[in-house]
Known about the structure:
The structure is a single chain. This protein is an alpha/beta fold. The protein has helices at 11-21, 30-43, 66-84, 90-104, 114-123, 165-195, 199-224, 235-252, 275-284, 323-335, 352-358, 388-409, and strands at residues 49-58, 129-140, 148-155, 260-267, 293-299, 308-314, 319-320, 340-345, 364-368. The strands form two sheets. The chain has a six-stranded mixed sheet, sandwiched between helices. Strands 7-6-8 form a three-stranded mixed sheet. α1 packs across α8. It is elongated and about 80 Å long. The two termini are 12 Å apart.
Amino acid sequence: MKEFHEYKGDINEFEYLMNRWCIPRLAGSEGSFEVVKRLKQDFAQFNVDSLEQEFAVHKSNKSFKLSNFFYGFSLLSLIFLLFLISLFWFTIIIGILIMLYFIKERNLFLKKNPCLRRREKEADPEAKVAFTQSNLIYRLKPTKTKKYNVVLLSHHDSKSQYLSTYIRAYFALIFLIVVFFALLAYITVIILERRGILEMVSYGLKLYIFIVGWLTVSFFFTLATNYISNESPGALDNASGLYSVWKTAQYLNESPFSHIEVWFILTGAEEIDQEGAAAFLNKYRSELSPENTLIINFDMVGLKNNPLEVVDSFYVPKEMINPFLIQLIEESAEKLDIKLKRWYLWIGGYSDGMLFQEEGFFRTINFITKKASKYAHQKKDTYDLIDPFLIDQQAKLVVEMITGINRYLE
């Protein structure tokens, strides 16, 4: 049983680490290499096995192509609108072109096995490398026979955009609703035009589609110009996650479990299609059986004036996480008298934990604070938004969860 001391609010420790880690560190930038150096220094105090895994980020990564796609979609939508009123039947051809364009570029949105995608690029001699990044891997070995793995994840890169993750998610929701009704209106107009009836209704629906179409063009043009830059200090996203892993390592230092190996993984290039997590999993998959591995991902945690939050369901249609995990989390939180909130991540927030979930690791937990997305990828994402007491609670909760599993394995 791990013994906890009452948290005294070591602000000096917290501020020291935040000042070291909260630097603009877009993957491939000077800051991304500097933060790796600093993390290696700050994790060196722990009695764990350590390794730096370098990996390539390829120029063909879909994250580098999104702006061009949105520009292309905006242009086709604009042509569609120009023919809508006067040459309605010609818009069907444009509509088909739009669908074909979307199908051609569908891999920008479909989550095609990111680990397989990496293996394909690495096997392609013509694949061009944009830059290299690093994962930092720390392993606390068990004292007896290993029966289980617990992998603690946090990404160390950051990025900035003028639209926050929170705003983009609601943009997407509004867009989907509006376009759905516009599509119904378009189908109705086709029927009315073909039968030559209700001309006024048909014209009114065309006008509605025209207005919605301009909103659509504006939406895609906004996304196209939402360029990635390197101005965010990346406190909540994701120095808070790094501190959660660091704090957990501090509690477990010199106190390994009897049957559980704990992995502390600091991934690079998470903001570029989870390249670091995919590189890690490709290398260590043989050591991590989905049946005997718990993945815990920390991303945007510790926001002030909020409880600890965990994603209990995600995507559309809704998928719940493993019931065993919900029970484990809630029982551990209750034992420590920690307030915990569960929430549904229906869109956005695709983090390293989701990659493991899709790769078959059904025991995956994502600690993510919903309201933190208001500050993610922004210049205002500074460490004064983080409550170190919450991070301490987060670490204690994780230690209690692992302790419970180890007790079961004894």
